[in-house]
Specification:
Number of helices: 3
Strand order of the largest sheet: 1-4-5-8-6
CATH class: Alpha Beta
CATH superfamily: Inorganic pyrophosphatase
Strand content: 25-35%
Number of domains: 1
CATH topology: Inorganic Pyrophosphatase
Order of helices and strands: EEEEHEEEEHEH
Radius of gyration: 17 Å
Number of strands: 9
Helix content: 10-25%
Shape: globular
CATH architecture: Alpha-Beta Complex
Distance between the termini: 29 Å
Structural class: alpha+beta
Oligomer: single chain
Length: about 210
């Protein structure tokens, strides 16, 4: 008898286009991890091949405060941009997500289930570049957290500070600013907008 009747992929799916945002999105989402709190390199999924590539060494001396990646089958375009008060364009990437967990995730290229608690709108070189903040589902310490207000302010400050300074170097000021910190309800709206942007731009041709 077959071990499982569930469908499966015989080949590695593209982490952006071939994986699902999650059956419970936008409340609970799948997140593909590109960077861990131990990385001194900035890694990013290559959009053509789906493999992880080195984007650049981390410019500053600080390490990422939590695991960081993106939500599959999301896209930051018109509907995501509409929430910004400052800019009229988004970065054209999948929606980024920061994952808080009691035990640090020490390897990248893993898929995790994450409970959305909030987020913030980052403006990077004049483009909206939202970051969703989530906790690892069923995490022993953070798993019951249901809103940004229930996280320590020092932790959310540290996440915002990292992204505010991670492109800074001795010759230039940071091209990044934080427009708005938002709680869970707004974060879910941004995720839903990014899912709709993905469908509008990619449709079903990558499913």
């Amino acid at each position: 008898m077959s071990a499982s009747n569930k469908p499966f992929s015989r080949w590695r799916p593209h982490p952006w286009h071939g994986l699902s945002s999650g059956e419970e999105a936008p409340q609970v989402v799948n997140a593909y991890i590109e960077i861990t709190p131990f990385d001194i390199m900035k890694y990013e999924v290559d959009k053509t091949s789906g493999y992880l590539r080195i984007d650049r060494p981390q410019i500053g001396s600080s390490l990422p405060p939590c695991s960081y990646g993106f939500i599959p089958q999301t896209y930051c375009a018109e509907k995501v941009t509409a929430y910004s008060k400052q800019v009229s364009k988004a970065d054209g990437d999948p929606l980024d997500i920061c994952i808080i967990s009691e035990m640090p995730i020490n390897r990248a290229e893993v898929l995790v289930k994450a409970k959305v608690v909030g987020g913030f709108r980052m403006i990077d070189n004049g483009e909206a570049d939202d970051k969703i903040i989530a906790v690892l589902s069923n995490d022993a310490l953070w798993g019951e957290t249901d809103s940004l207000a229930r996280l320590p302010e020092s932790l959310t400050d540290r996440i915002q500070h990292y992204f505010s300074t991670y492109k800074m170097n001795p010759q230039n000021d940071s091209p990044v600013e934080i427009e708005e910190l938002y709680d869970v309800d707004q974060a879910r709206k941004v995720i839903q907008a990014s899912i709709e942007d993905y469908q509008n731009h990619f449709g079903d041709k990558n499913s």
